[in-house]
Every structure is written in C-alpha cells, then in structure tokens.
Amino acid sequence: MPGIYIHIPFCKHKCTYCDFTSFPDRLNFAEAYMACVYREAAARGKELEKMTFDTIYIGGGTPSVIDPNYISGLMKQLKNCFHLAKDPEVTIELNPGTVDARKIAIYKNAGINRFSVGLQSADDAMLESLGRIHTTADFLATAQLLKGENFSADVMIGLKGQSAEDVEKTIRLAHGAGAKHISMYALTPEDGTPIYTDYLNGELPDGDEVAALYDHGYKVLKELGYLRYEVSNFCLAGFGSRHNMNYWRRGEYIGLGLAASSFLGGKRFTNTLDLDEYMKCVLSGYFPVIDTEEIGEEDAKFEFLMLGLRTVFGVSAAAYKKAFGSDWREDFPAYERMKQYFEEEGDVTRIKEEYLYVQNQILTEFME
Ligand code: SF4
User: Fold this and answer.
1) Start-end ranges of CATH 3.20.20.70 in the chain?
2) How far is the CA of 185 from the centre of ligand 1 (A)?
C-alpha cells in the first residue's frame, strides 16, 4: 500500500559525510516551513483523495530537532488530509541528543509508533570525527526513553580506522539497548562533503575492507537473532519496516517537503531543493516540483527486478507477469549466464545469501 514521506530539513550541525538536503543554520524557519508542509499536504490530499496510505515516514534532516508540537500538528494535518489505513506504521527519525521524555510522549500521542535512531557508531571519537552531535551515552539515554517501543538503530560501516570489532561493538550496543531493527549502511563518500578528502587521501577502508566489515556485522546480527530482509536492513521477527518494503516492491508514495521525491502513476517527481523557492511556491498555490520523469516500460521492468532482488523476498514471476504481462527471464536473458548467483523457490527467484551484498555488481549485467 502507498506511503507518505515528509522531509524536515533542519539539523543542529552538518555531519562530515552528509549530502542530504539539510540546514544546520535555518532552524528559525521551522515554523514557516511546517506551515508550508501542512499546505502542501492539504493540496496533495485533495488530489489523492481516492488513495489509502498505509505508512508515514518523517525523515530529514533531523525531525526531532524542531518543536515536537509541529510534529503533532503535522500528524493532525495528515490525518485530516489523507485517507489512512487502519493501523498505519508511522516512523520518525530521531537523533540522540535532541530528544527528551516530553518529546517522545508528544510523538506517541500524535500516533507515531516507530522510531529510527541514528546511532552510527559506539565509538565517541568516531562520532566526533563524523561531526555527529551525540555520544554513545546520548544514544543509551534515547534508547531508555524508547524502552519497549519499536525502534531501529542506524549503524555505519566503512568509517576511517574502523575495525570489525568496532562494528560488532556498535551492533551489540544497539541490541543491548533494545533495538528491534538495525540498518547497517556503508558510508558513501560524496564529492563536496568534508569526508571526501579522506577518501581522496586513501584514508577510508577500500571496497574489500568494507565488504569484510559487512560480513562480520552480518554474522553478529544473525547470531543476535536479526533477520536480514534487505541488503542493509535487519530485524527481529515481525519488525521489518513496512514503509521501506513498499519502496522495494516498487509501490507508490507521495513525498512532502523540501527535496522530497514521489512515485505515482508511473511518474517519479522531486520537489525543489531550495528552501526559499519551496516556501514561495507552496504559498503561491503551486506544487514545488522541479523534476518529473515518466518511467518507460524497460526502466520499470529493471527497477522492479533490481528493487525486489535487494530483498530476501526476491522476485515473483507471477507478480512480474501481472505487472508487465511478460516473463522476466525472457526480458532479461542475462539471467541464464548469471544463474549461479540465484536460487529458486516456487515462482520466486532470489539472490543467494552469500551474494546479496554484491547484488549491484550482479545486476549491472541485467542492464544491457
Ligand atoms: S544529522 Fe543526518 S541529515 Fe543532519 S547533517 Fe547529519 S547526516 Fe545530515
């Protein structure tokens, strides 16, 4: 079922690896910005009144850095403007060091039932060099506030000087603190970010070293009872992210706010990345979209395959046929020569467990 994403572009401080649309110095715009998001929600809700949405994801930036009453106002507005399914999954991203008991109580009252916490590392020196504003102790305090809740922790691999033991320590810390879900992502050094210099200087682990960190992390996660359901996402039974599963099933979603992307009716479109332009546009009664792309059939087929094969659920031949009216193995003849990387179960094909981490390399063969 479709989802709703809302982007909150404010942060306390810019992390050294971050190229997301987020501002460390414009928090004073939060009230005006949220008023525009409410307006955009009203306009989109009218347009999409026939759709039912099953998940809401409030991401950023750092949604927990703004006054929590703006978040409860947002939830009220979404409930008024969109038709929501009976028990929607509602996630908010939190940064340790920006939450307290009052904020969590307001979020829960507003209907938020899932929390995604940016831990990244259990090493305070590494957190500092990433420009994170929190310490391990802040993470533990946040986890204490979320005791018994459905919360996820983000863990980064591929950091400067990081060892397999560091990754293990971070995962064990998240597990011990009660995380029901762990996302383990490799750092991507983006051009223009401070960490890119470390990359150019050869100070970051290379591809093989990152793969070894991933393998070790995966082994520890498995031992602790986390199931891998997507290449970077692991959960205790029953705690997978419905919102993200919708992305990987190539489901529809609407994005609200600065730089938010949407996928509706076979089109992908993105809102402006310019805060002033976003607000001007919404206040003038226009959608702040700067880029729209109609996805052709060939691309749609490849996306379907690529997204499905990132997950352990793989690709169902029947689902593919229903979507496109053809057999995916005939559409992608490269499959025949890549067969050794795949396994079959009924009509489902998935990448073998040991190759999931390198699925990108395998799937490039399908692009021809
Ligand atoms: S908290 Fe997240 S969005 Fe904000 S600067 Fe750091 S990485 Fe970027």
Assistant:
1) 3-247
2) 14
pTM over 0.85: yes
**Could you read off the pLDDT of 190-202 as tens digits, one per residue?**
999 999 999 999 9
Checking if the pLDDT of 98 tops 90, the result is: yes
The alpha carbon of 12 and the centre of ligand 1 are apart by a number of angstroms equal to 8
Residue 101 CA to ligand 1 centre (angstroms) = 22
The span from the CA of 359 to the CA of 364, in Å, is: 9
Would you state the CATH architecture of domain 297-367? Orthogonal Bundle (1.10)
Q: How far is the CA of 9 from the centre of ligand 1 (A)?
A: 9
Top CATH class of 3-247 equals alpha beta
Name which of 239, 280, 257, 130 is nearest 193 in CA terms.
130
Split at pLDDT 50, 70, 90, the class of 213 is very high
Minimal-distance CA residue to ligand 1 atom 8: 18
The residue contributing the CA closest to ligand 1 atom 2 is: 61
Atom of ligand 1 nearest to the CA of 13: 5
Is the CB of residue 56 less than 8 Å from the CB of residue 36?
no
* Ligand 1 pocket residues where CB is under 6 Å: 11, 14-15, 18, 20, 22, 60-62, 95
Contact 129, 117 (CB under 8 A): no
CA distance linking residue 260 with residue 266, whole number of Å: 17
Q: How far is the CA of 172 from the centre of ligand 1 (A)?
A: 23
CATH 1.10.10 positions along the chain are 297-367
- pLDDT, one tens digit per residue, over 119-147 is 999 999 999 999 999 999 999 999 999 99
Residues in the chain: 368
Tokens for 153, please give them. Answer: 């922790």
